[in-house]
Amino acid sequence: MVKRCSKCGQEKPVTEFYGHPTRGTSFACKECHKAYIVNRQHRLREKKKAEWELRNPGVPFPERKRREEKQVEVVRKAEFRKEKYE
Ligand SMILES: [Zn+2]
């Protein structure tokens, strides 16, 4: 059984799609789906970077791992509270 991928237009076996083999398979094949995820992550990062540059002009966007980004966010919030109540 083959299914046509709506992204690349190629007919591929249903095993090349995620999801149930006959019902509810994703519209794009695994390859296109992966490309979509990577592209989405890239766009999100670009967006974050643009926001960072707006808030922190002249400060290079930190190339950090996700967990470290969260810690920075916690520290920033704590500092904000300190400023507010001191
Ligand atoms: Zn495809």
Describe the protein's architecture and organization:
By secondary structure, the chain is mainly alpha-helical. 53% of the residues lie in helices and 7% in strands. The mean pLDDT is 81. The chain has one domain. The protein contains 2 helices and 2 strands. It starts with a strand and ends with a helix. The protein has helices spanning 30-55, 66-85; strands spanning 2-4, 11-13. Strands 1-2 form a two-stranded antiparallel sheet. Residues 5, 7-8, 10, 28-29, 31-32 line the site of zinc ion.
Brief summary:
This protein is mainly alpha-helical. The chain has helices spanning 30-55, 66-85; strands at residues 2-4, 11-13.
How do the helices and strands line up, and which of them pair or pack?
Blueprint lengths: L1 E3 L6 E3 L16 H26 L10 H20 L1
Antiparallel strand pairs: 1-2
The site of zinc ion has 8 residues, from α1.
Q: Which consecutive residue ranges, at least 5 long each, have pLDDT under 50?
A: none
Percent of residues in helices comes to 40-55%
- Distance from first to last alpha carbon: 68 Å
Helix and strand run: EEHH
User: Which geometry do the CA atoms define?
Assistant: elongated
Number of β-strand runs: 2
The main β sheet shows up as: 2 strands, antiparallel
Structural class by helix and strand composition: mainly alpha
Quaternary state, please?
single chain
- Strands in their spatial order, largest beta sheet: 1-2
Q: Which kinds of small molecule does this entry bind, naming each only once?
A: zinc ion
